[in-house]
Amino acid sequence: MKLSSSLMYAGNPREAADQVTALEQAGLDTIWVAEAYGFDSPTLMGYLAARTETIEIGSAILNIYSRTPGALLQTAAGLDNVSGGRAILGLGASGPQVIEGFHGVPYASPLGRTREIVDLIRRGLRREKLTNDGIFKLPLSKEDGAVTGLGKPLKLLTHPERDSVPIYIAALGQKSVRGTAEYADGWLPFLYYPERAKAVWGEAVADGTAKRPDDLAPLEVVAGGMCAIGEGPETKALLDFARPLIALYVGGMGARGKNFYNDLFCDYGFEKEAKEIQDLYLDGKKQEAEALVPMEFLEAMNLVGPESYVKERIAAYRESGVTNLQITPATEDAPALVRRMKELIAE
Description:
This protein has 347 residues and is an alpha/beta fold. The chain is 46% helix and 14% strand.
């Protein structure tokens, strides 16, 4: 099992990048860089590549709408080059509010779009000429909207560092998870409850795995939560700091009837809480919504408590199929925590 974390910054990623070098020296295997509608991920990933030497650098996530397949191919190849073969391309559909509101692109055909993009990127990294006759038309003909009709199949101009960059998919829905298990290199689930993951996604993962090509390695799974090791009640109290994030996603990340994270909470068995959290959050009562996040979920998702309990959570994540444990250190000495977590994982 690998150990990873996300680049945490509050407006100044340069300062956060300084911490990544210390985490790398402590043994962290992978750093993930989010995008949402803040700073773009590739710029920060390139900056981290210049500041580090061994750590894997992954996007978590780049959405599949605001960049063409060709642009995503260029990004994957460029990041892999400047990092010396340490890039991971994390992709996802994001949500309608960001895609249609911030990028002004129709939120259409996320499943088919993802599959075609992954195929085009893989072919592009092998420097094959890009052609496609699906959601994406390459080259674009006049019948499909081309102005000149002069487009022709092209291959990547430069030689990539590797002819295959790992592609991970952020997926929650059954069809999306099934496709991820079939053709992606890795899976990035969110709000992951290890003991209930199989009940929610087990069938989808099994169905996708049954169709997985023989030349693909087993699916990598990245999941985790806040992490702190300590005996006293002050350590347990740290779980409350996870409430705002969970309430944001379950209650406010989307609209009523169109919130993937709220649906997941229901699938976990928290239907009542999911509805109440959403109602309160959308009514502007955020603190009341946060208070309703079940302690059961907070304890299961996060790795916070005595060392014996943290070891139990590591075992639960491993048993559920997680191969890369993603932690958010809730301590001032994050490198020390990373070193200890690496030791516990190895036991």
